[in-house]
Amino acid sequence: MSKIRDASTDQPLPRGTGAIIGNLVRSDIEKRMELGRRKYGEYLRAFNGRSWKIDLYEELLDAVCYLRQGIEEQRAIERRKEQQPLETFNP
Asked: The whole model's pTM is what?
């Protein structure tokens, strides 16, 4: 049986000075809700005649594509850094 992971001991406690991520996510959700209302004429509701599994699957496929794009772009940046002297590198 696998051990349950305890994030408080596996890593140092998070400390930061940047934006509060939960607030950013809340704002993003509110914006997406309003976008959906404008696009479809109402907010997303349960029992709307669509398959949530198919919708989620398609959204996750999109997310994986964006993730892969980011990985490829980061690798290209790293390759360029290795090929150019630091003082001439301009991403």
From this structure: 0.61
